[in-house]
Structures are given as structure tokens and as C-alpha cells.
Amino acid sequence: MAEYKKEEKSLKEKVVTINRVSKVVKGGKRFSFNALVIVGGEKGQVGYGLGKANDVSDAIRKGTGRARKNMISISLNGRTIPYKVTGHFGASSVVLKPASPGTGVVAGGSVRAIMECAEINDIVAKSIGSTNPFNLVCATFDGLKQLRTEEEIKRVRGKEEKSESLGT
């Protein structure tokens, strides 16, 4: 139990957006809220969650819980990503490029929040298309999920390399 609480304290939480939504009912409008939350842990651990509730604080709490459950691990090359990737979701696209040390995080809005929570220190990101925060977060995660380490790529291509070396 103590280890779990210790793990919770090391996580960074960032609320990307809070929306007030309304539902029209017989007596008028009924308002509720949704919150998009990014949670990041140690190097390369990050997740996102969307929480919905009648109160802002409950929506943030639910979003944080979902983000902790949906955490992914990112393959990093030191302080940056190993190579250029493009993520797509809906009408949004995000291009993520590695940057040299000292560049910092060159990204806007919700993409910046993800990079800071994942502790990616040097990266250049460009958002193309729709700037809807939820779509940008999903597109960024699509790009980050495509990243592989050099060892993983070699393992996947291992059979191809062996067959080529036998043929020559």
C-alpha cells in the first residue's frame, strides 16, 4: 500500500482542457463538465484520460484515474525521441521531430503538456489540421506509440538480415 502511494506522488498531472457541456431537458438546460488530463511518471511514462461529471473537481479526478490506467511507455534516445514520426487522429496530425540538446520543447498547447509530463526535454512538434485539444492528444499518442528502440527494430528485422547475409 505504501509503495502505491509513493508512486502516485511521483506522477505529474496536467489538465489540458475543461469543457462545460449542456443537455437540453424538459425543464431547461442541464450543465456538466469534462476534463482532459495528462499524467506522466518517470522518463517516458505518460497517459491521458477524459473524465466527465457534474462537477469540475470530479471530472478532473475521473480523468486522472483514467490517465493512470492508460499509461504507455515511450522509447527515448536520451533527452529526445529516436526519429521523426507522424501521428494522426481524426482531422488532426502531429509531426514529432527529434531535436539537438538544448533546444527544449518546441510545441504548442496540449502537445507541450504531453512532452513535459513524459519528461521529453528536446523535441520539435508541429500540429497540422484540426486544433481540437482531444484530437491533438490522441494524434500525439498515436505518434509516440510508433516509436521503437534500435534493439526492437533489429529483433523484428533479424530474420531479414540473416537471409540477406546467407545469400551473399
TrEMBL record:
SUPFAM superfamilies: dsRNA-binding domain-like (SSF54768), Ribosomal protein S5 domain 2-like (SSF54211). PROSITE patterns: S5_DSRBD (PS50881). Keywords: Ribonucleoprotein, Ribosomal protein, RNA-binding, rRNA-binding. One of its GO terms (molecular function) is structural constituent of ribosome. Belongs to the universal ribosomal protein uS5 family. Located at the back of the 30S subunit body where it stabilizes the conformation of the head with respect to the body. The N-terminal domain interacts with the head of the 30S subunit; the C-terminal domain interacts with the body and contacts protein S4. The interaction surface between S4 and S5 is involved in control of translational fidelity. This is Small ribosomal subunit protein uS5. It comes from Candidatus Desantisbacteria bacterium CG_4_10_14_0_8_um_filter_39_17.
